[in-house]
Amino acid sequence: MTDFLRALGFPPWAYWTAALTALAAWLAVAAFPSPAGSSGWSRLRHPTAFALLLLGAMFALRWPAIFHFRPVNPDEAQFLAGALTILARGELGWLDATTSGPLVVLPLTLPGLLGTPVDFAAGRLVALLLQWGTVVLAYLSLRHLHGDRPARLLVLPLAAFYACLLFWDFVPYSSESAPVFLCALAAWLLLTAFSAEGLVTRRARLAAGGGVLGLLPFSKFQVIPLGAALGSAVLTWLLFQPTDRRRKLADAAGLAAGVVAGAGGMLLALGASGHGADFYESYWVHNLFYAGAGRLPDTSPLELLAHLSGFSWGFSAFQLGLLLLVAVGTACRSRPPWRSLLLGWSLVLAAYLAVVVPGRLYPHYLLFLPLPLALLAAITFGPLIARSRRPVLWWTLFLGVGAGAPLVDRAWDRHDLSRLVPAAGPRDRVVAFINHVKRPGDTLAIWGWRPEVYVETQLPQATREALAEAQINVHPQRDYYRARFLADLEAGRPAFFLDATGPADFILHDRDRYGHEIFPALHDLVTRSYTLVSRQEPLRLYVRNDLLAR
């Protein structure tokens, strides 16, 4: 354990030797062309080998944060609990991931399908894979715009950012992981549907990109501005194609058909599952309420952005570095093609809107920014390097400013290690008890905001949500959520019921105000059907009466 902790805070020689070797191998393949007659080096420079070496470098730098990092943000546990529930029930539409959509939870079922536990390490590995996929798709997009060798270097700032993640709200699997990957996928499909002359040459790819855009709202509401920016930019490209009006309209129809197919397919699947009405109430309606509630009063967007960036380790330097590169490229009149410039700026502005418009102090919202910023910096700076007589100087500036900040911050990490070691407490004892007596097919229900217990016990949810905030706090839909929670309990008859409200809860610290007794019908059900078996205050664990003989 000591070695793992030192690997994050004060790295021993073994960790850094492995990490720097993997990083150097990837950088070498990125930077150096194949010598004449060197077939082995040519194979290493194949895009597939390049991508796999990138994955190795990202894993080598991040593995301690994957396997030994205390769960801090309960969103991570909520999504993992959802994946456990999908795997147990075999259906996607039943689950309610609160303000996130079903496509946020779905990737986390991969470990379970492969026969491994759906735990915190598995979730962070899935996050790493999605971020790696985002970098690879960005590289392929830039390759289409600038050529292979420049693209390998232009993608370095984005790769360095993801490889060096250490900030506690960036390390876990978050609600941004899947939406950002889908944005990168849509951007690649849409970009590569066009030729260098601005004509659509791959209409099927254009429709596929539209299909991904149609899926975006089912990942997270907050990503809709990025999807709208992508769609609007590409629609503008279509309308300004150097071709006849009939072809323009046909291509625009292909894009629109893809969007309708993506969104319509998800709606049909949810409707066919029998949970369409619930999805409408708990996702669409609840998200509209959530968007207008909980904003910070008297805080300007710039103040909010500065505050979020300031306490997110290393993010300010990365963000300001990329904005500086954009400013230098613009000042030097790099003159990138208007199509790619329109796409880059549209994505950046939409990403900033997604971060600041909700008006909340959630640092993981910043994860919407790295991909758009890195693409815009590459789009702006790439032509400047290509036209220069001394490209080495411009490459040094680009890589030093863009990729240097994350790497230096990672090497000079001096942050508190206390978050890496989970302290023993009442939750551990309750989890140990459940794990000792649970049986195959058992489920768990939690009243409160502690979804970590689902992950630590590997028990699926008996109710659609992994947390009961919507049933507890006062808002227009509370009666709907309470009725559904009670119906799920009566139908599922979970083996265990845990009241997590009180000092150990994430937010709901006052048991008198938030305990399950405030919901009389629920209190009656628990009193009638369950027995309190654990007095590990402040958690209260109940077991169904007919299972007490265990």
Question: How would you sum up this structure, described in words?
Answer:
This protein is mainly alpha-helical and 550 residues long. The chain folds into 2 domains: 2-33 and 44-289 and 304-411, no CATH class; 426-547. It contains 27 helices and 4 strands. A 4-stranded mixed beta sheet has the order 1-2-4-3. β3 (530-534) and β4 (540-544) form a beta hairpin. α10 (156-163) runs parallel beside α21 and α11 packs parallel to α13 (224-239). The two termini are 35 Å apart.
Write the layout of secondary structure elements.
Elements: H1 2-9, H2 13-31, H3 39-44, H4 47-67, H5 74-89, H6 102-105, H7 110-113, H8 120-146, H9 148-154, H10 156-163, H11 177-191, H12 203-215, H13 224-239, H14 245-272, H15 276-292, H16 301-311, H17 315-331, H18 338-356, H19 370-387, H20 391-402, H21 404-411, H22 426-437, E1 444-447, H23 452-457, H24 469-472, H25 478-492, E2 496-499, H26 511-514, H27 520-529, E3 530-534, E4 540-544
